[in-house]
Protein: Cytochrome P450 family 2 subfamily D member 6/pseudo
Organism: Anas platyrhynchos platyrhynchos
Amino acid sequence: MTLLLWLSSDWSSIAVLGVFLTVFTLVFDFMKRRKKWSRYPPGPMSLPFVGTMPYIDFNNPHLSFNKFHKKFGNIFSLQNCWTNVVVLNGYKTVKEALVHKADDFADRPYFPTYEHVGYGDKSEGIVVARYGHVWKEIRKFTLSTLRDFGMGKKSLEEQVTEEAGFLCSAIKAEEGRPFDLRFLVNNAVCNMICSIIYGGRFDYGDEVFRKMVALFENSLSEEAGFLTQFLNVMPILLRIPGLPQKVFRGQKAYMDFIDVLIQKHMETWNPEHTRDFTDAFLKEMSKGKEAEENGFNYNNLRLVTADLFAAGSDTTSATLRWAFLYMLLHPGTQSKIHKEIDMVIGRERSPTMMDQVNMPYTNAVIHEAQRCGDIAPVGLPHMAYRDTELQGYFIPKGTTVITNLSSVLKDESVWKKPNEFYPEHFLDVNGQFVKPEAFMPFSAGRRVCLGAQLARMELFIFFTTLLQQFTFMLPEDQPRPWTDGYFALIKCPHPFKLRAIPR
């Protein structure tokens, strides 16, 4: 009997404690997420603890955002656990934020999930680095060094043209058989950024090269989805021993591979002879304490080169794959491009950037592939650098801000056929090329893509060279490819096969 009384009393105490903890946690959760601001953007009802995260399809976030856009308007709010998020939609809204109020929206949120690969104070890379002195110094150095190694110059164009030749040779080796263009295009595009960062290109069959590209793609896949978002807003879970290394195994392997490449550079580094971007960064690192204070340290070298590789490879590769997918689905468009190529360039000499101005239709098709492919539908998150207002709404400092670029590239008030592949979006009534201001595939403002200039050059030369040499066709036994794409930080076409018939 005494034992029963003790158990009864004990369970009663546990129940009281459980109720107390539940009430305390709910009150804490309410106080933590309570908005004290008037004129804060509207949004869906926030649930305890998780906020609005259950409402978002993190495998297709742009589709979820588009639904809320229709319900709440161009500016709406979400809540990732206790992190306040505001989503901007439509051309006018995004332009006002990123261009007219560039400084207000130039910051980035902190990403705890990168800490296990060296991300932290004065080593945040460049793409996701927070807005401030270190980011400005690293960006200025990066742009200057990229120009030194040919960005925007004839020398780099010649390298792209040479790589396009290697790509054509690899495609010819398929001898008209059905094949997946993804691997060869990935190799060609990655080779261009590798030559700038690491001083040389790789043969397409090189095992080291294949491993690097595979590790990079695995790391991208790991960074997409609900779990990564949840860990970034609940970073205490990352303190569980071994969890980051297990969850982000591909990310860690990719950074370990970059370590090997940098170590090889360091072993052969000569400060009197700068071979590439890595050498230039090492030279800055050697300048002492002031350089270190400006972010020139080993961890940042790893992260900056990883950022440049990401910015200069997968996005361009995905865009080219979208472009060739549209050629398969629109053979009439491909025929028009063939005629324009034959008229302006012919079949013998290689295309150059000077040809672009005389090829309005080809140029329009490339831009429409970028718009319709929509490879960065939600861009990278920004953060309000200070308290600000946007279209009458108050957005407090520290708020995570997402620019729904998909809503810009498919804004019904700008584009005649926003959800269709329609190259005439970029042609005037006289058939001349025009570029609407709402064309923002590289984002805009302070955080516009560093590799945009290289990407534009690669897209034109690779695309035009391949269509100069080949006619691309769907294999007879293959189903019609899907056009919805899949999201893994960027939106890529589903795998498809084609045949390349020499012209």
